[in-house]
Structure formats: C-alpha cells, structure tokens
Amino acid sequence: MELIRPKLVCLLLKWSAVKTVIRDIMFIRIAKLLYIIAIIAWAGNGSVAYANSAPTILPVGDQYVTEGQTLRLHITATDIDHDKISLGVSGQPTGAIFVDSGNGAASLIWRPDYAGPMSSEGSPFALSFWAGDGTQATVLTANIYVINSNRRPLIDAPTVISAVAGNPISFNLSASDPDHDALNWSVTGKPAGSIFTAGEPAQFSWATVFADSGSYTAGFIASDIYGASDTVQVTFHIAPAVIYALTIDTVSGYSGDLVTEHIRLSNLVPIRGFDLLINYDQSALSLASLTKTGTRAAGFEYFNYYLNERGISGDVHVVGIADIANSIVTPPLAAGDGPIISATFYITRDLNFAGFAVPINFAFEDLAYRTDNTLTDTAGARIEQTAIEYIDGFVAIKKVTQSALGDINLNGLAFEIGDAIYLTNYFINPVNSPLNNEQRANSDVNQDGLPASIADLVYLINRIVNLSAGLKPRYDHEKVALLSGDKRNEFSVAFDSPEEIGAAVMTLELKGTENDNITVEAPPESRGMLCKWRREGSLLRILIYSDKGNRLPAGINEVVKVTGAEARIKDIQVSSADGTMMPIVFRDGSEEILPRGFSLYQNFPNPFNPTTDISFDLPVTARVELTVYDLLGRNVKVLADGVFPAGHHTLVWDGRDEKGNSAASGIYFYQIKAADFTARKKMILLK
After folding, report:
1. Which residues contact 479 (CB under 8 A, 6 or more apart)?
2. Which burial class, exposed, middle or buried, applies to 462 when counting CB atoms under 10 A from its CB (0-12, 13-18, 19+)?
3. What would the pLDDT profile of 614-672 be if each residue is shown by its tens digit?
4. pLDDT tens for each residue of 254-270
5. CATH code for 154-239?
6. Cβ contacts of residue 211 below 8 Å, gap of 6+?
C-alpha cells in the first residue's frame, strides 16, 4: 500500500449550524485501485456533498474537406464524475449526419456539394458541439472549410462530318458545366468561310464550295471561369463534288416487252450540249425509238442520233445542242437532275435470254480525241471525260418462276385444264385469245426456249392427265417426213414418223378463197385425236391434238383432210409424245423436199458433257456462221463459217475453245447467221 498526498482536493461540505473541519485527505493505492480517505472533524449532526464537474470535449480543431469528398469527424467527451454524457451539434450543414453513440462518442459525416450553398461557396461552416451530463454542459466550436474542386465542362457534339463539296453543313454543339460555372467558347482550325456562333447551344455552319474538297479538323473548346475546359475535335470529310454524272436506267420486262430506258444527266452547273455514244446488244434488244420529248433536253434546238456509229453494231451516237446559230435564243440547260434522252427497246421473244441482264453501256471508241460521252459548258468548251461520272444500265429480262410456269390464263393456278384450253384457243384464234408477254413466258412449260409451241401444249396436257411420269423431254428425235396431197378442191396432210406424235398445228394458205363451203376433218386413222380449225380469209388454222394424252402411232398417218379448196402449207409445228419439237422434212413420194424456212434447233443433249449436237435448216444455199460464245459475249468457238447447201445440217461442239482447251462449266449461247436469218439459243455445259 502506498500513501499519496494530493496537492489539491476540493470537497463541498454541507453542515447545519455546526462547524466542520477537514483535518486531512489521504489517497491510498491498492493494486490498481485508488481510494480517497477524508479525515473530518465536526461538531453536531450533518452530511457531506461533493461538487459536480461538467463534461470535457476533446478538441478537434478546424476541419478541411474538398467538394465531393466525404468528411468523417469524430467527437469524444469525458466526465470526471462518470456521469452519462449526451452529445449534440448545432449549425450542421444541410445533408450532414450526426450520430451520438451514447458512450461519450459521436460522429459527423458530410459530403459537400460541388456547387451552391453547401459547397465552397458557403465556406466556412461554423459548428457548435456540446456535451452534457444532465446538470452541466460544455460547448466546443469548430469550423469546416470546404475546398473548391473545379470540374471540367462537357461538350456534346459530332466528331465526324461527311459532305459533298458545294453542299451546306450545319450542326449544333452543347456544353454543360457540372459546377454550373459560366462557360466561354473558342475554336481552333476553323475552316475558311465557316461561321461559329457561341451560345447554348452553339452553332456551326459552312457553305462549302466545289473547291473545298478534302479533310479538315477543327477544335471546339468550352472553358469555365476557373480555367477547366473540354475540347472536341471535329473532322470534316468533304468529298469532291460530282459536278456532272451520266446515268443509264436499269429496267426490267418480259420477253417481247417494250421497255423505256432513260439516259439521265445530273449537272451542278449549266451546260450547253452533249455528245453521247451508247451501246446495246442487238441480239437481245431492238431500238424502237429514241427521242428528247418529255426530257430536260426537250427545248434543245438540235437533237439527232446515228445508228451503228463507225460501223459498230449496237452503237448509237446522240448529239444535243441547246442553242445553235439562228435567230432563236435558247438558254443553256440549267443545273438539275433528270433524263435528257428517252429510248424505247423491244426485248427479244427468245426465252433463252430470260433471267439475264442485257447491258446498255456508255461506249468509248474514240481513243485518240476522247470525244465520246462529253458535254459542252456555257462558253462552248468541251467538258472532258475525266470530269464526268458514268453509270451504265441494263435491261433485266424477267424469268418465269416455277410457281408461275404453266399458268397461261394467269388465274394463279398452273398446269390446270383452263391453261390447256386457253393455249388451244390461242392456236386456233390468236386474235381473240392473245398471249401477252407474261403469258408467253409462262407458256414455255417444256423450257426449250420456244414459247407457246405445239410441244408446250403436249407437255402441258401430259402434266394435267398425269402422263408426264417417265416422259422427260428429249431432243434427239428423228425427222418427221411431211406428206401432202393437193388435188382439185382437196388437200391432205400425212406424217411419216419413226416415233409417236403428240400433236401438230399448221396454217394453210387456201387457193381460190371464193368457196365458203370448206370442211376439215381428221381421218379415222388419227386414232382419237381431236381436230380444231378456224378460217380467217385465205388462212386456215388447224390443230390436231388430244386432251386425254392420246398419240399418233409411228409410221405413216394421215392427220387432216381439207375439202372444198386447194391449199399449201404456210407454217407447221409437230411435237413428239413427250412434248418436244420434232424436225420436219417435206417429202413428195420418196423424194425429200428442202426445208421451207430457216430454223435453228435446240442442241442435244442439254445439259451436256462434253459433246452436243446443234442442228439447223436452210431452205436455200447460204453462207452460215455458227458461233459459240459465253455470257460476256466473248467468242468461244466458231463451228461454221462457210457456204452450206440447202437442207438439214447437224454440227457437233466438243466443249473446247479455239485453242483446244476445255471450256469451263456454265451457260453458253450459240448463234447462227445465214442470209438475213439470225437466231440464238442457250445451252449448258455441265461437268
């Protein structure tokens, strides 16, 4: 035990009317405990009372916090009398949280704003912390200083602008400051001629001219009053202006259609005239008309065109001049966009072209002076080809879809009896039952490229009566000999065929048409074939067919007899039983008569690998050119180039080109030219 005598001890003694004396105070420490012993002397009765001490708050000093950061301030208070302490605060900022833990400890948590009264703008913030024990209290003051944290502005603007020289550019830029500071705009690298207007939003505009093509970069800067800023780099891609552009339309149509192609001019500045050269494929298209009527060039004083320019097949040279030397003054063609030429083309009826795009191109044949497809400016100077953009066109020849094939009456149902009836009516009376180009395309049911043929009727009926199973069209049929007998007031037709015949259609030209009492009949040996006929003046149309799929047997069969007039055969078609065209020879007794006309037959086999036969008929001796070429019109092989006698001829292509190399798999065309006759067909080499 250790005795300790303190330097100062304060005791509050309460005694009534009795003098009290504190003789001495002694502190005794036993282990870790401290005991206080007071030695008191008094006279009379009374009690002893101690003095209450106020709590003590540990000093915290002034506090500093940056805007947007969190201040955590801990407050600690003690009481020497061990009384329970309550802690509180006054003047705390809005949004601050003060928590009294109840054990003489408390905390203040606060995150200042970036702007406004609860930010550095309202600093400093004076706080009073108090601690009380229920009787006495202690107050501690402290200041919170908020340090400004300036945030940079943010710009909202496009970063890439693309335009064509000569077109105006304009856009807005927006800038915002998170601290709500006032902003100032500035621009670096501003393109010459452009205008920038500060504000919210800011505006940029630029009326570009043709010479402004290229790339530019401008910096747009928004700064606040404290120097923080944001920059957006805007890149301008100004493409060169296409001041002049010539375009040929792309159109579509069925085989046999008339289609209109426009040659269009887009010019950003006026012009005085044009000198154009276009080319088209004459084997697929025929130029029906070419005019300026209804175009931008309708008012030109001079307009003319020349076919097969420089002797090149399919080249068309067109010249237009707005004003020529006369008393009439015609202004130049103003800037604009639209057709300057309207050309109408007739699409070939050859269905072998169906599904192909036939190009119509700008041709450039004048390699020396380069005058083809040029323009003239208002001063009369030539605008060179390098200053003009050219876009070629084409005519897409529609191909019948599989769902439409066989829908001849266009009722949405293919290969039904109504289609067969319509086609038979067409053979007998094409005026009352005509075929438009869509119907013609749909009628090529055997897909041999010959629409509305007697072979199509046979194939159609076979499909309808379900006879087509196992009867796939073939093209290796032998020739049918046609035997005709012409007596006074009587004409007969017979076939000598090595195989069955499915149908035949013919047109007879009558002699002595004054007789109206004409009869047409199919003899008994026609074996159930139907005979339909119709007379139109001196023409007699006859159809021999079966709506049940019956056939004429092989051998010699008389098929029709006309009584009451003499006649001659003007046209005839014969179909095999499977629905393909059969070659015909005319025979008088045992002597073969020469073909009545030029013909080019479908190759057989088709598709083929590696050889195929190509046959043709000549009614007279003629020079024949038979050429195979590819889809791009390039010659692959010349099969014939010489004089052939009249008759039926067959040539073989072995699938090789002129150099002896094997041709690639694909689609090829073969074309014959004999006298004034030209024909073309499609074939497929499939390896």
Report:
1. 582, 583, 584, 585, 648
2. buried
3. 989 888 889 999 999 888 778 899 999 999 988 888 899 999 999 999 998 888 999 99
4. 888 899 999 999 999 99
5. 2.60.40.10
6. 165
Q: What is the pLDDT of residue 377?
A: 96
Same CATH fold, 599-685 and 480-586? yes
Burial label, 332 (beta-carbon count in 10 A; 0-12, 13-18, 19+): middle
| Residue 267 token pair | 């010019």
How far apart CA 442 and CA 456 sit, in angstroms, is: 10
- Write out pLDDT tens, residues 146-196: 998 888 999 999 999 999 999 999 999 999 998 888 999 999 999 999 999
Beta-sheet pairing, 229-239 with 214-224: antiparallel
Are the CB atoms for 667 and 589 separated by under 8 Å? no
Q: How many CA atoms lie within 13 A of 340 on its CB side?
A: 30
Token duo for residue 635: 């010659």
In one-letter notation, the amino acid at residue 304 is N
Q: Is the dihedral of CA 348, 350, 356, 358 positive or negative?
A: negative
The band of 526, judged by pLDDT with boundaries at 50, 70 and 90, is: low
In CATH terms, is domain 480-586 a member of 3.50.50.60?
Answer: no
3 state SS of 641: strand
> Using CA atoms, how far apart are residues 450 and 106, in angstroms rounded to an integer?
103
**Residue that the structure tokens 């439409």 belong to:** 404
588 bridge partner residues: 591
Q: Where do the structural domains in the chain lie, given as residue ranges?
A: 56-147, 154-239, 244-397, 480-586, 599-685
Residue 314's nearest CA partner among 252, 265, 358 is 358
- What's 244-397's CATH class? mainly beta
**Which residues are 28's β-sheet partners?**
3, 35
Q: Which CATH superfamily is domain 56-147 in?
A: Immunoglobulins (2.60.40.10)
Global confidence as pTM: 0.56
pLDDT band at 568 (very low <50, low <70, confident <90, very high): confident
- Name residue 305's amino acid: Y
Q: Which CATH architecture has domain 599-685?
A: Sandwich (2.60)
Cα–Cα dist 340/263, whole Å:
6
Partners of 77 in the beta sheet? 57
C-beta separation of 540 from 572 below 8 A = no
Residue 377 tokens read as: 């400016």
